[in-house]
Structures are given as structure tokens and as C-alpha cells.
Amino acid sequence: MSDSWDDYAEEWDANPEVVRYAELAFDSLRDTLSSNDLLSSKSSRILDFGCGTGLLTEKLVGSAKDVVSLDLSSKMVEVLNKKGLASVTTVVDELSRNLLERHPAFHQPFDLIVASSALAFVPDFEATLFLLHSCLSSQGVLVQWDWLKPSDESDMGFSKSELTQAYQTCGFTDVVMSEPFSMTSPNGELPVVMVVARKG
């Protein structure tokens, strides 16, 4: 999987649709957390899961004490590193129990975890969700954006029923889903589902 993403790294930030997705995701994050100090106190620890070239990381830097940006693609992270963002720790690895135990960046809990168009690509969604749950502080929040499937039978993205089941299984509370934006494709509009869930 990481090799295929490596192939896209150099041109990723030049794709206007990719840039637009990151902008809309951040706008929806800011709007959703406007009554929460996670993006205003500048004291939060944030994990950008599946950070890619850091288009969302760039927008989070000014709202956090530090940001940990995790991705499997070394080439994507190489592009992010060249941006020279302050207070950002990049990690090229797969999220695993071993990583959480051995890497210092994961030894303190996160107040906010964002996963923008990333969780649909992991081999085991519930197992990854469970690990992300374990990374959060006691009142930490996970925010996910992915394509919304029209039905459980579709093979791209997630349906709301799939998301509801997974988040309940992994112990999240106050799970709220919305469709904050959509992207235009040759086949029509592709709605994006946003999940905001608290560790509880």
C-alpha cells in the first residue's frame, strides 16, 4: 500500500481536488469544534493519522502545542518534512500496539485525532479504530472524514450503519455524523461523511 502512495507524493499537493478536500475538511473541523477549546487554546496534542503530504497538518499547526503526523508512505512524509513546519513530529510507520509502546511521540495521549480520507484504506478498520481510541486523552476527540457509501453493499468508503457499529464496538461515546461537504466527480457528487466521537 505505501509503495502505491509513494507514486503520488511528488504531485499530490498540485492536485486542486486534493487541496480542496483538505480545505473543506479543516473548515468543517473548525466549525464543529468552534465551541471547544481544542483548536483555540494552542495547548492541544494532535495526531494527524494518514497525514499524507501534510495538507491538513499545515492547517493544524497554529492550533496545537504539537502535532504528530503519521503515514505509511515515506515519500508522502518526505514532502511534508520539506515544508519545515514547527512543532510537527513525523512518523513513517503503521499504527500498531508495538509503535505505541516504542515510539516516544505516542507516550502521551492526544486531545484530538484527525483522520482525513485515511481509515477507508486500513486493512482492519475496527482494530485501527480501537488503537486510535487508546491514544486519546480521557476527553479526547476523534474526527474522521471518508466517502459516504450509498449502501452497505458498495465497496468505496463507509455507510453510516458501518460507522455506527464500529464506533460503538470500540467504546466511543457522543458519536455524531454529518455530511459537511461533497466533491464533484465525472459520476456526480460524492458526499463525504464526517464522524466526531469522544473517548468518553
UniProtKB/TrEMBL annotation:
Keywords: Methyltransferase, Transferase. It comes from the Bacteria. GO terms for biological process: methylation. Gene3D superfamilies: Vaccinia Virus protein VP39 (3.40.50.150). GO terms for molecular function: methyltransferase activity. It holds the Pfam family Methyltransf_23. PANTHER family: TRANS-ACONITATE 2-METHYLTRANSFERASE-RELATED. This is Class I SAM-dependent DNA methyltransferase.
